[in-house]
UniProtKB/TrEMBL annotation:
Organism annotation: Halorubrum ejinorense
UniProt keyword list: Cell membrane, Membrane, Transmembrane, Transmembrane helix, Transport
This protein's name: ABC transporter permease
Keyword Nucleotide-binding: no
Residue intervals of the ABC transmembrane type-1 domain: 153-340
Topology class, membrane: Multi-pass membrane protein
Main localization category: membrane
UniProt-annotated stretches for the region Disordered: 1-27
Cell membrane as UniProt keyword: yes
Top-rank taxon, per record: Archaea
Compositionally biased intervals (Basic and acidic residues): 7-19
Subcellular location: Cell membrane
Length: 342
């Protein structure tokens, strides 16, 4: 009786899928930057319309504290004539272009936002160059702070994940958390008050650039260290890391493999965390040091109810978010071709 050869190793193995049968999530998706840009741009237009409408409604349909202050000052001076008070209101609304029907004012403002002809502020300056100059001034300390925070945060977090028992890792994490917890505004105010009266000690470079960069970086550093350490630890004990170590790879090479796999979740956090914390930090830093940047400009616009400036600043924030999302999508496709970003 002839013998029959049986391949027990393949008896229960399912048939191999052809490339066309593979799930779409495992196939490399084609990246179409123009499609991504168009999709995000449409989303940005819709978001801008909703946010601008909400801001316009809040400012035009709620109590005007600036007008109430003027009316109160007139009454405190003994002026109670209704006609005089009505004239004060009429002059106030005319100076702000609000003496027309609200629908007409609303359509006018939206049209200006689209054409980038944002009108003039209450001080008589053109709004568009005023906002762009403020954004550039803020970027001079925000961008260096972001680069420093990302570089130091990723380095410390990854090192701590790969060397969890090392003293250097523990010290680095502790220092990052300490910088994050310190009241930067109090320290900056203390330094500023101590040197304000000393013309030789007060340095424009220190207060206009170095301290704002340091405080903004410290605001971001704790979060970046924590997130990079958490995401890197997920892969620090993975099989491929053990294999890379067994082949004699250097610590730098191992860290590069870990970071490549942890890059997508960390990159998602990077932009969201930066936008949220820096928006708050810029207000504090610019008020503290008197920096005529974007945060101080928006605060003055809110205080004075300068609607053109406020709406122009709102457009800038919206488009920074849209551009950041586009960069995120493109980075996902570069970091992991399996991600379908199309």
């Amino acid at each position: 009786m002839p013998s029959e050869t049986v391949d027990f190793g393949r008896r229960n193995e399912p048939p191999r899928a052809e490339p066309a049968d593979l799930p779409s999530t495992t196939r490399s998706a084609g990246m179409n930057p123009l499609r991504i840009l168009a999709k995000r741009a449409l989303m940005g237009v819709a978001t801008a319309w909703v946010v601008l409408t909400a801001v316009f409604g809040l400012f035009t349909l709620t109590q005007d504290w600036v007008l109430q202050g003027q009316i109160g000052a007139a009454r405190f001076a003994g002026e109670n004539d209704p006609e005089v008070l009505a004239e004060i209101r009429a002059e106030y609304f005319a100076a702000r272009g609000l003496d027309r029907p609200l629908t007409e004012v609303y359509a006018d403002y939206l049209g200006r936002m689209v054409t980038l002809e944002w009108g003039t502020s209450l001080g008589g300056d053109a709004v568009f160059p005023l906002v762009t100059d403020a954004v550039v001034r803020t970027a001079t300390y925000v961008l260096p702070a972001l680069v420093i925070a990302v570089a130091v945060g990723v380095g410390v977090g990854t090192y701590a994940a790969l060397n969890p028992d090392g003293r250097l890792a523990s010290g680095g994490i502790g220092a990052a958390y300490l910088l994050f917890a310190l009241p930067n505004f109090w320290i900056g105010g203390l330094l500023y008050s101590r040197t304000l009266g000393d013309s030789t000690a007060a340095s424009p470079l220190l207060y206009d650039h170095l301290l704002p960069i340091a405080f903004a970086a410290a605001t971001l550093l704790g979060g970046y260290v924590s997130y990079s350490r958490a995401h890197s630890r997920e892969y620090a004990s993975a099989d491929f890391v053990s294999l890379v170590r067994a082949k004699g790879a250097s610590d730098r090479r191992v860290a590069a493999h870990v970071l490549r796999n942890a890059a997508i979740p960390f990159f998602s956090m990077l932009f969201t965390e930066a936008l949220g914390l820096l928006v708050l930090a810029t207000f504090v830093i610019e008020v503290l040091f008197g920096i005529e940047g974007f945060g101080l400009l928006l605060l003055d616009a809110v205080e004075n109810r300068d609607l053109p400036v406020l709406l122009g600043g709102t457009v800038v924030i919206i488009w920074v978010g849209v551009i950041g999302n586009v960069v995120q999508d493109l980075a996902y496709g570069y970091l992991d071709p399996r991600v379908d970003i199309g």
